[in-house]
Amino acid sequence: MGKADVAILGCGPVGALLGNLLGQVGLRVDIFEREREIHALPRAVHFDGEVMRIFQSVGLAERVAQVTRSSSQGMHFINADGQTLMVRRGIDGPGPHGWAGNWYFHQPDLEAILRDGLARFPDVTVHLGREIADVDELDARYVVGCDGARSLVRRAIGSRQRDLGLHQPWLVVDLLCDPASPRVRALPDYTIQLCDPGRPMTVVNVGGPRRRWEIMLMPGDDSARLTEPEVFWPMMSRWLEPEDAVLERAAVYTFHSVVQEGWRTGRLLLAGDACHQTPPFLGQGMCAGMRDASNLAWKLAAVLRGSAPDALLDTYESERLPHVRTFIDLAVKLGAVLQETDPAAAAQRDRRFAAGATLFDFPQPQIGPGERDDAPPPVGTIFPQPRLADGRLMDEAIGQRFAIVGETALLASRQAEAVLLPGVGADWLARHGLRAALLRPDRYIAAVA
Ligand SMILES: Cc1cc2nc3c(=O)[nH]c(=O)nc-3n(C[C@H](O)[C@H](O)[C@H](O)COP(=O)(O)OP(=O)(O)OC[C@H]3O[C@@H](n4cnc5c(N)ncnc54)[C@H](O)[C@@H]3O)c2cc1C
Description:
The chain is an alpha/beta fold.
């Protein structure tokens, strides 16, 4: 095995996506994964339109769409009496990224597609069943630790952990529901966050017969007994009876909110859960890891090809960390609403929303300072994906390159480095009082005119 351009440690969703992004630009990549089989316990069930756009960039969106359920519905925070406190809005039709805004899925199905995708690239080799005990074993110009919450690469880097305050055990179960049952048919399509101080829960329509329940552990719970029928079904009585569903899989997780400071030292880098963990109340943990991969891949490619200095990789953490923190901070705030178990405090909370539900959307933060000009938004935010006159989505015309949209004559001096798309995004540019925008390969706006 000769020297690889990049060794990726971990073939979870983030490592597998990064391998696809790097394989697509022809880099030599070795991926090492301890397990032979895809992780079977219940984890992510939701990703957003921006992540679908990243799957599009590696040519896998159509396949992913076949195993996912798109939804225009959002997430409703409901109290024990059924009063709606807050709604994270859904998006009707294709959203700004050219895809539906919310997608629901079974994580093993998604990971299988990402792994199959790797087989397209002769220079990407996946070593399954290979546990790495020391990063010095890895013969590669760069090593990316996509090795999850207990990351070995993170220990080698010596990152500092910043605790954002939320740590709470929850039982997570997937049920296969009987579609003919009237109680199953009565379940809503939107995601429910049940803010019941007696027992907070989350309910998600994953797709097909599968539904997800996330159930907060309460004082006195015996976590080993929670899935025993006489303990489990009474907790479900608001929705289902035992004859409505079978329990497919279950696990108890402690949800954490932490970020690491120090995503790079020398040739070592981190991505995904290795450098941040969020409670899943926004369904954004894996999404953040996918954005890491998208930010890092084009930078690694530019540095390895010699078209950018190695210092470009120092912009990765400074750009990504504030972005992911925005999502984690919001998830922690939502957790404070959802996880309130003091009845008096919950009643006071409910009175705050008595005038009507609060509506909100996913944040669309600016990335932190780094490669972008030090300019206010929309620089550093992601550019939408309109359809071109020929019917294609914009990114299809760009690939893993820079692009200039709008009045390209203004920026034609950069033609050698960028795809020119005259007139594209004209409405968006006009709304922002701009004439042109320079887009990076991850579609974040590098500069505007
Ligand atoms: C209950 C729950 C619900 C969630 N819901 C959502 C959701 O709806 N939406 C969302 O976006 N996210 C969600 N998440 C988060 C999401 O599941 C994770 O963020 C995501 O799986 C992290 O991916 P990763 O590739 O970074 O790490 P992992 O998936 O943890 O992959 C790391 C891989 O590295 C391998 N590895 C580790 N060390 C070594 C080693 N030394 N040698 C070789 N291999 C190694 C491991 O075997 C593993 O396969 C949820 C998580 C949980 C627990």
